[in-house]
Amino acid sequence: MPAQQDTSASAPSSLPEGARGSARPAPTHPRPPSAARPYVLEGVRVVLPTGVVDNGRLVVDGTRIAEHAPAGAPVLAAHGLWAVPGFVDLHNHGGGGASFTSGAVEDVLRGIHTHRLHGTTTLVASTVTGDMDGLAHRAGLLSELAEQGDIAGIHFEGPFISPCRKGAHSEELLRDPDPAEVRKLIDAARGRASMVTLATELPGGLDSVRLLAEHGVLAAIGHTDATYEQTVQAIEAGATVATHLFNAMPPLGHRDPGPIAALLEDERITVELINDGTHLHPAALQLAFRHAGAERVAFITDAMDAAGFGDGRYMLGPLEVEVADGVARLVEGGSIAGSTLTQDRAFERAVTVDRLPVESVVAALSANPARLLGLYDRIGSLEPGKDADVVLLDADFTVRGVLRKGTWVVDPFAGRADGR
Q1: What is the largest CA-CA distance in the chain?
Q2: How far is Cα 330 from Cα 172, in angstroms, rounded to an integer?
Q3: Which residues form a coiled coil (predicted)?
Q4: Hey, which of 47, 209, 308, 337 would disulfide with 321, CB 3.0 to 4.6 Å?
């Protein structure tokens, strides 16, 4: 929990403020009738895998997207709004003043809900470096939330990372990736471990990657001091993800290209990018898109407690963090300590600042991470039969509506007597 934060204040009443990362989330307006009978969202700009459909229609039937609406189905006018798939965040440490590493169940749920208000309908909860027994205990708590469908899985970021590239992780708690200890965390997660970030050049690194691949857990290369050649070896062993590419790894060099070149050039790797304007220069983001292609980029938040909550002092694992002007840094040493990013801001920046096509941004925020998690048959695109996870955005790419499994988390029609 953050220090010196007042959680007693009431939530603001306007969606735009809540959708822009205010100190408190905006209220939600569930609409029970939406789950009771099919209805049509009319006049939306629907982003499909095949392209954008202007003045389109989206049919919601219970918890799913349907191909056709029955005669007499209610029609909700949403003219001019973009309809995109719910965002999928592979790497998220908390939000709304709550930490996924240390908070109680109600705190974790508050953090999840904060990100849902900003369009993230599927979230993998990430932990930070801690002692092994504490992480195993945490995995048990988070696995229960995964079993309930609140999160899509667990990502262990640390303790198996390089002290040379530790970032906002406690050096005293770091350790080499012993396969037996990696297996301990997998077992503690009870089948809900989605990903483990490793410095694969450390002793036991390659064997741990092979272990993760055998158990269907994503092996992510990150917080690493690996050479180009060592990174290629890890990819051959089964690694498939680059944890926040460019950050916490050696820079690209013309004689010593390091891990960045190996991760960008291999088609088996999905590269995470934090598009908050702090972690990456726009040219670095463009470099990743050009070399990996839009189909291999996954936007993540790497969010910590302050996301959607505000500036102040927080704890990230055992380390104290100062958040000022929305940027999180360790009090001791000043290293960047995660982000305060929400995925709607990543979307807006990608389109308005980075000038990426909307279809590419949707792929990076929804389709690509859904495929990586093995969930693309259920989420990641607005196709009939998939979950009704929908984000409605206005012309400025501000969130106006969030639908998760057919229930409005943020209701764009609240207060309109005719529902239109």
Answers
A1: 67
A2: 16
A3: none
A4: 337
Return d(Cα 276, Cα 353) in angstroms, integer: 11
Question: Domain 87-372 falls in which CATH fold?
Answer: TIM Barrel (3.20.20)
Percent of all residues in the chain with a pLDDT value above 70, rounded to a whole number:
90
Look at residues 288, 298, 279, 297 and name the one whose alpha carbon lies nearest to residue 337.
279
Q: Which amino acid is at 54?
A: D
> 115: helix, coil or strand?
helix
CB 172 within 8 A of CB 158: no
Whether the full predicted model's pTM is greater than 0.85, yes or no, is yes
User: Which among 89, 276, 302, 389 is annotated as catalytic?
Assistant: 302
- For residues 238 and 221, is the Cβ–Cβ distance under 8 A? no
Residues 15-85+380-410: name the CATH superfamily: Urease, subunit C, domain 1 (2.30.40.10)
Pair type for strands 327-330 and 390-393: unpaired
**How is the chain split into domains, by residue range?**
15-85+380-410, 87-372
Tens digits of residue pLDDT in 167-205: 778 889 999 999 999 999 999 999 999 999 999 999 999
| pLDDT digits 0-9 by tens, 277-327 | 999 999 999 999 999 999 999 999 999 999 999 888 888 888 888 889 888
Which residue positions in the chain have pLDDT lower than 50?
Answer: 1-35, 417-420
Burial group, residue 21, by CB count within 10 angstroms (0-12, 13-18, 19+): buried
Please say if 302 is a catalytic residue. Answer: yes
Q: Which is it for strands 399-404 and 390-393: parallel, antiparallel or unpaired?
A: antiparallel
